[in-house]
Amino acid sequence: MAAPVDPIQLFSAAINDPPNSAQQAQTLATLREALESQPNRLPMFLSTLVGSTARAENSLLKSWMLDLLHYALSQTTLNIDARTQCEEAILLASSSLDVLESLLNEGDVTTCKVVIQCFASVYPLLFRLLCLSRQQPSARSQWETVSRAKARILDLVGAPGVNIGLKLAALKFMQRVILVQTRNAVDPRLQSKNDPNLSQCPTDHPFLKADQLEQEGVRLLQQLVTILFTSQSVDLISAIVNGWASLVEHRPIFLPFIVQTLVTWTPNALAASPSNIRSVEKTIKIMLVYISKKPQAAPHMAQINAALGQQAMRLEQLAQDERNRRAEASRKRSLPASEETGSDPKRPKMENQPEAGPSIASVLSSFDFRTLPAALIIELIIANLTALSATTLQTAVANHRQTIRSQAPADPSQLPNGEAAVPVAEPVDPLKMEIDDELDYKLDRLDSQLEEQQDPAHSRDGNAAVGFPLNLTEFAMPPPRALSESEREVLVKSSLLEMQHRAEELLRPNDKEDDSKAAGLLGKPLAAMSSLFLVRIVSRGLESPFQDEAISSSDLPVQKQRQVDRLRQSLCDFVLDNFPARAEFATMWMNEEWYNDRTQSAENPSRPPVYDVWLQKIVSGYRRKLDGKDKSFSAFLLDLPHISSTLLELLRELMSVGFTTLRELVATRPPVRSEALCILLELTTHPEKVPRNAAIITLKRWVPDVQPMDGLIREFARQMLRRLEKKVSQEPTSGAGDNATEEDGQLPAEALVQTPYLPVDLHLPAEKPQVLQYVELLFALSVKAPDLLDDIFAGYSRMDVSVQEALQDLLTPLIRSLGSGHGKLLTLLRNIRRGAESLALRVITIFTENGRPSAPLVALVKALIAERNLDARFLMPIIGEMDKADIIRHLPRVVATLNGTAEQKNIVRSVFTTIISTPSENFGTVSSNEPRVRHSELLTPAELMILLHQYEKEIGLKSAMEGIGICFSMTEVFRSEILAVVMQQIVDEPVLPVLFLRTVIQAVTTYKSLVGFVSTTLLSRLVTKRIWINPPLWEGFIRCAKAIAPASFGALVQLPKEQLREIVDKQPSLKAGLREFVLKKSGNKAKVAGFLDIFNDETPSSTESSVQRPQTPTQPPIPAVSSPTAA
């Protein structure tokens, strides 16, 4: 990357260059580029050098410096920060303002114009700065300098003899002053830094008098209005009107005044040409339309509309006057020359007559009207015809016809000897050649028959007498000479080369605009005529037989067909060589062949068709070169007179071009609509995604508003859905079965439509990609036609399970696009058919997968569960939105769905997550006043665990154990303090759940910190509740005691001896630890003896020597457990 250039060095080099030289200009241009690329250098550079350079004489350096100054102050392309720094640096240097003021007095117009433009940017900026820094020492002197410059510039607006460029610059400066010296919004919060105005001026400013400045601004605005109504300069009027756009935008208070001024303006005082008046009227119209779009213009719309109407009338009158003026001028130019007043021409002239000048008629006859613009010629013709009355015009036409008849010789024999009458064909309008081709053909045949009846010798004699008058209007060309085979081939090939050459000439750019217009007007009709002539030679001219002695009569048809095929093959090769450029020629050729097939087949039914053969060759030949973005091929197909079934089948394989053509054929060609639509419908079942989606997108545009396509598309989609239903076997003789099959108005299975992309019968179990081929069109249409959802829900219950599972997955995008608030979908869910419950469940699940269900959906599902007693799976998506009482009521049904599978465990875990409120991190240790989200509607973790124990019978022990296990797996929610609260609350209940001790064992296994709580509090509480009277709980008690031993020994010794003996018998491993615990803790000899009796020991002394064993480990501290309500 090149190093940045130093602007000071470049400026020094420019000063040292020869003044006003090319070298100096190049150096200054390089310096300008460097400064534009380094805008932060501009403030220092301008504030330092502008004063010394601008005071010099007119030179290249001076004009360059002024242009740079104007760029820094006015160009919006400059960075805003750099531009602000430049403006502030220039304004803070008072010498720069003095220099600018002195330059206003120079005689150079360009310099003065640039200085005025600089002041237009300086004035609002200086005003804003002085409003903020009014106590600066140089502030007053700067304002006085700018005020003097303002007075000098404003004087230029009304001064006579001032250059129009200076006046326009001064006028723009005046409009900028008006913006600054008027008020915007009174609210200081609405003030903009980029819009300096009087509202920003403090009322106690030492030298900026707001009242005086405001009065001056209003006076300048009135001066603009005076100039608008009195000025004869179109440029000044347009500049004033265009400048008011910013006034309307930033000063809405003046909008009524501006509207009133514009609607009352008329061009009466403007002595200008009609074109200039139209220009001003257009400028005012644009401004009125711009104002009408503002909200503040609503009260003035009646005035604006009335003014626009009057302006339209003025413009129409102006145009009419201009047409009349041109007609009058044309009429005066076309007056015949005055007849010469002379005597009898046989009388000898006695004196020389002055030589007469050329008459108007002779001048017009030699004038080349092709040099005039076409628009002017048309206006002249219309003006002349308008000036004539109808009677005069009819009389002139009749006289001209009589003159032509009288000038025609009555007999060709009257012609001078040696001059044979040359037959001239009457000019034929190319547009009339295709108006009635059938009539042309019949006339050609009639002419041929007449020529055969004439005497050949008589026709060859050019001087022989003719039995009818020679009248050009009734003359017919004789038939052309029959060409041989080789001559015809040469003619066709040379014509093709000539057409190609002419096309290239037309496409070649022309430097002269008039020449290009002439080529456009003359070349294209001639090229079209040549093409039509060539096509008709090949398609019609070869039908007439030719004589060739070298060919026998038996071989003539075969030879003739070969000749025709060779010529048509030449046309085909010519078209395929550059089809996009020759598509119109191909269209013309195919239309001629189609018409010729019709006319010839009527006379010769055995004649083989030509149109289909050569159309197939063109399409097949270009198919290999076809580009998906080529629109010429589609246009060619759409312009064909007939579309065969073979061609439609070919379009099936042409992807994007085929879809475009088929779409247009369906929309614009009713004869082939059914076949084209059938192909598009079949393509919606294509196994590949790209053509299938393209066909679906094409068909969607006709649903639901375009008939008859809408009905046909819907019926096809319904039949594709019916093909997924299971076939019901019926007895052939059963009349009741037949009625049952068609009671819903649907077709029997064997009558359903078939497509080439789908098997006759659906293979089960069905795969999802194959099912998608059947239903993707129906799903896409259901977005625009919701009534098709009825068919989906109705047919779902009659489908195989594998098809239903595939549909549930494929429906996901459609259901998400419809949304949970879709009325039709909610209605179907409310009135769900039997057998479609799994589909309804899938729809509800989709609605709740990525967000909370809507209130209407929750209400609908609750109503369905209450009325139909639906499966508990319907509860899971919405149970989190129920209130607490409903959650407690439906919780057993949800947990009862657990069946040991991981999938169902995950579902229930997600349900638990939605129905419990997560406790804070300080739960159980510190009281918190944190707000609880939906605390009154959700369950606490402790409540959920307790409910699982209380409803263990309704849930089932196995499912309840799985539910409790899920809770234990949610360690971030069910922490040790939560489990302590749960165990404390359950142990206080009168009837203990069967699974309680199992939960206790699981708790102490998961959290070792709970061992102390269980051993000292929980087990002792169970002893007091006589736990041994409940065998299942007693068994759990024994297992728990073993699990936490030796911490449980303190509670065990509280048991009666029978129960303690039972524990020792069932768990012998506890005997040694218990005996050691008793010997160490018990001081009563009798009590120790009783325990030792249970442990089968005779005396306490026999074991005293063996007591020297490791002491019982210290029990862990019991955690502080808050009250149950804290959970």
From TrEMBL:
Start and end residues of each Symplekin/Pta1 N-terminal domain: 108-324
UniProt-listed GO biological process terms: mRNA processing
Biased composition (Polar residues): 1098-1109
Gene Ontology CC: mRNA cleavage and polyadenylation specificity factor complex
Occurrences of domain Symplekin C-terminal (ranges): 871-1066
UniProt signal peptide: none
Basic and acidic residues bias: start-end ranges: 321-331, 343-352
Disordered: region residues: 321-357, 1098-1127
Keyword annotations of the record: mRNA processing, Nucleus
Location relative to the cell: Nucleus
Pfam families membership: SYMPK_PTA1_N, Symplekin_C
Entries under Gene3D superfamilies matching the protein: Leucine-rich Repeat Variant
Superkingdom of the organism of origin: Eukaryota
UniProt-recorded name of the protein: Symplekin
Species whose genome carries this gene: Sistotremastrum suecicum HHB10207 ss-3
Taxonomic classification: Eukaryota, Fungi, Dikarya, Basidiomycota, Agaricomycotina
